[in-house]
């Protein structure tokens, strides 16, 4: 495998020599992220290029190929999480969002860590035009996103974000969430002790969950994938309410049988599996159906 930056550079150069391929290779982790300008290039073709120009590197063990239009067309929805970013994502994330937008497929955005690094801010700003069906984040991320997109507050609100943790209350993010939902025509989920969901007109507050959910790395990020699943079968607001409710149901039930993060994580996954449609419907959710901005 690749052992040094010299090897990495040779593999990257070899992959980029293939027509219609744009590749970025990293050492840690050893990943070659490949974007195809048109049709997907067979992995065997990529391997031959590496064999000829970079020596005996096993390309198939670390190639992460992406033909955005093809991948989007094959699924019901996509989820774009702005957490860990590779340099190639500067190309793949906007292309994936555009492909979903052009195909009329719902996509979910989690602007996690917004404000950390110029690449993340640049990418999230570029995604405004593609209008995600669902935006999900904590209060500070939602406030920062609305400010960055010029919908509510100011771009300076980015400075309020502290890593992936929130410094704002859910209620403080209400106006920002409403403004985002009205721009996208979809739904926004603001996570917190009591979650807020809005489509720009109706506001819902979903109760439940557990403080232990904040002790599990990736709990919030994983919810974005669940929201995308629901978005395959329902309108954005319904999908957002259901995806939030099932997490709250599972969190409440898991907390009843576990009192520490590791055991809670296992119990939480089990309760996600066990949750029925009736369980989700029965979860406490308060709706405010008057104009959301004035409620």
Task: Note the topology.
Elements: H1 5-16, E1 21-26, E2 31-36, H2 43-54, E3 63-66, H3 68-73, E4 78-81, H4 89-103, E5 107-110, H5 118-126, E6 134-138, H6 139-148, H7 174-184, E7 187-191, E8 195-198, E9 203-206, H8 219-231, H9 236-255, H10 261-274, H11 277-282, E10 285-288
Parallel strand pairs: 2-3, 4-5, 5-6, 6-7
Antiparallel strand pairs: 1-2, 7-8, 8-9, 9-10
Helix pairs in contact: 1-2, 6-7, 8-9, 9-10
Overview of the structural elements:
The chain has 295 residues and is α/β, with parallel strands linked by helices. Helices cover 43% and strands 16% of the residues. It contains 11 helices and 10 strands. It has helices at residues 5-16, 43-54, 68-73, 89-103, 118-126, 139-148, 174-184, 219-231, 236-255, 261-274, 277-282, and strands spanning 21-26, 31-36, 63-66, 78-81, 107-110, 134-138, 187-191, 195-198, 203-206, 285-288. A 7-stranded mixed sheet has the order 4-5-6-7-8-9-10, with helices on both faces. Helix 1 packs across helix 2, helix 6 (139-148) packs across helix 7 and helix 8 packs across helix 9 (236-255). The radius of gyration is 21 Å and the shape is globular. The termini are far apart. The model has no long low-confidence stretch (mean pLDDT 86).
